[in-house]
């Protein structure tokens, strides 16, 4: 009886899906997909029926119930179902509700992890989220949260309301998802949470896409990013992980590099000399 | 002049690398790789020279200097170099030092993100790190940290010392990397940080591998995980993200599923009260 593979599609560009995810897509009969995934992903599963269950433009809680029901219906029909989610399913992906529905229906499933947006933004800007000495912890949170509290009962009228924007200073690097619409408010909140006004803030929208935009700010000037990233999926990185990496002093010493210390004494063949291009 | 691709190999199993990472590996001439990556990854680049620069068994800081120098040497030799790192390069991957060395040497590079261990463990156990209502933030930190302070100068004698174990309660879900050797101490630290004694803790070693081990604990009984996961790469998840997902009540109503509600809001069966997790 049916099987659902939850697959993290990665942050956008189709080739940031995992090899496992791509393989399972190629075997899918039905693909329920979010709005944000790269259309090129379709080429990985031309045989499948693709159903857009992206939540844009209508109420989240109603949409979630529909998605759950679609998963169960297709799973029960004994189809190989893929639920393709942007980024990673376990990070701000509403995975719990969908797993709950499948468990209740007795449908087996697998979760294939993906590259989450925080990590994609770090890679695209070459700014590691952790830094030796100064960046020992990373926090992932979201600026767009429903009001905390008990989940509305299924069937109850949708009570979707944006919760208060919450910005904290609990880690050396804070990454805030879905902040695109609230950059000015976020800057104020970060200052109130104790981040110094000159703390670096790196803002990336559509990380890893050809039309990626990256801009550098400080906590006190974050509002200036609002227009630039308007209407685009945006990740905001604050603190240690937002700093540009600087060239090391001393590392371009030719003698030191030629001497490369051998860690364990294990013999390594020195690479064959090869003509270097000018 | 040379080019280095930093590639996140994912948490272990070779097919959790990204499609982009796999493609770049296939073009590599030299691969500098960590100790933890799946040997099956070699099949993606049989043409390349594979150099193990894993840090096991010798001093980290000396090893890091060697790795930096090797990257620069091979980059300068105009080779297509891949630096293959376990998990994601930007999360506890010591990426900054290597980028600094390449920048100093004027060698261009790219960072290809990967699946980090926290996310792989969540997927393997089907326990999302974020949960609607109860899991709005995730913290990534490590139990194994060098003493904070200025980095030793390049070439200086290694002054590697394990820093104090630090456990916090700053997010709804805390994930602690590299905790395998300190599980008993970690349990005490988590209690001191304010986590209730009965907070669920999920421990996963070798996430996503055939020999993965997963065990459930509470903060007060975490010490009991030590023997089970001894000597294995281990990720510890605490709080909201550690709870097993429970079957939803009401979602297996056949009529409701057949009727798949439309986004505008069809009637749904209210669920029975949700069971609390132990």
Task: Describe what is shown at a glance.
Chains A, B: InterPro entries: 4pyrrol_Mease (IPR000878), 4pyrrol_Methylase_sf (IPR035996), 4pyrrole_Mease_sub1 (IPR014777), 4pyrrole_Mease_sub2 (IPR014776), CobA/CysG_C (IPR006366), Siro_Cobalamin_biosynth (IPR050161), Uropor_MeTrfase_CS (IPR003043). The structure is a homodimer of 278-residue chains. The first copy, chain A, is an alpha/beta fold.
* Strand-pairing-aware structural class of chain A: alpha/beta
Which CATH class of the largest domain in chain A applies here?
Alpha Beta
In the predicted model, the low-confidence regions of chain A spanning at least 5 consecutive residues are 146-161, 261-278
Oligomer: homodimer
CATH architecture of the largest domain in chain A: 2-Layer Sandwich
Distance between the amino and carboxyl termini of chain A: 63 Å
Percent range for β-strand residues of chain A: 15-25%
Q: Assign the CATH topology of the largest domain in chain A.
A: Methyltransferase, Cobalt-precorrin-4 Transmethylase, Domain 2
Please describe what this structure looks like.
Two copies of one chain form a homodimer. The first copy, chain A, has 278 residues and is of the alpha/beta class. Chain A has two domains: 3-115, 3-Layer(aba) Sandwich (Cobalt-precorrin-4 Transmethylase, domain 1); 118-242, Tetrapyrrole methylase, C-terminal domain (Methyltransferase, Cobalt-precorrin-4 Transmethylase, Domain 2, 2-Layer Sandwich), CATH 3.30.950.10. Chain A is 22% helix and 19% strand. The longest helix of chain A has 17 residues, at 60-76. The radius of gyration of chain A is 22 Å and the shape is elongated. Chains A and B meet through helix 1, helix 2, helix 3, strand 5 and helix 4 of A and helix 1, helix 2, helix 3, strand 5 and helix 4 of B. Chains A, B: Pathway: Porphyrin-containing compound metabolism; siroheme biosynthesis; precorrin-2 from uroporphyrinogen III: step 1/1. Chains A, B: This is uroporphyrinogen-III C-methyltransferase.
């Amino acid at each position: 009886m049916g099987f659902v593979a939850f697959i993290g599609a990665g942050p956008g560009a189709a080739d940031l899906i995992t090899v496992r995810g791509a393989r399972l897509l190629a075997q899918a009969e039905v693909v329920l997909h979010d709005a944000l995934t790269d259309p090129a992903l379709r080429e990985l599963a031309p045989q499948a029926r693709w159903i857009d269950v992206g939540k844009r433009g209508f109420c989240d809680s109603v949409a979630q119930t529909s998605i759950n029901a679609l998963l169960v219906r297709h799973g029960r029909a004994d189809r190989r179902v893929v639920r393709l989610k942007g980024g990673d399913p376990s990070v701000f992906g509403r995975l719990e509700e969908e797993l709950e529905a499948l468990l209740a229906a007795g449908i087996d499933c697998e979760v294939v992890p993906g590259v989450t947006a925080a990590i994609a933004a770090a890679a695209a800007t070459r700014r590691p989220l952790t830094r030796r000495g100064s960046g020992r912890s990373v926090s992932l949170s979201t600026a767009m949260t429903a009001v905390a509290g008990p989940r509305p009962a299924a069937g109850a009228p949708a009570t979707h309301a944006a919760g208060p924007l919450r910005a904290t200073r609990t880690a050396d690097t804070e990454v805030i998802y879905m902040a695109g619409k609230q950059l000015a408010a976020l800057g104020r909140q970060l200052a109130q949470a104790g981040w110094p006004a000159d703390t670096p803030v790196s803002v990336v929208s559509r990380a890893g896409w050809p039309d990626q935009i990256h801009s550098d700010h400080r906590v006190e000037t974050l509002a200036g990013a609002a227009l630039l990233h308007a209407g685009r999926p945006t990740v905001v990185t604050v603190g240690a992980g937002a700093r540009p990496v600087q060239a090391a002093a001393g590392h371009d010493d030719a003698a030191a590099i030629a001497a490369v210390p051998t860690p364990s004494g294990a013999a390594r063949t020195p690479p064959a000399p090869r003509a270097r291009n000018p």
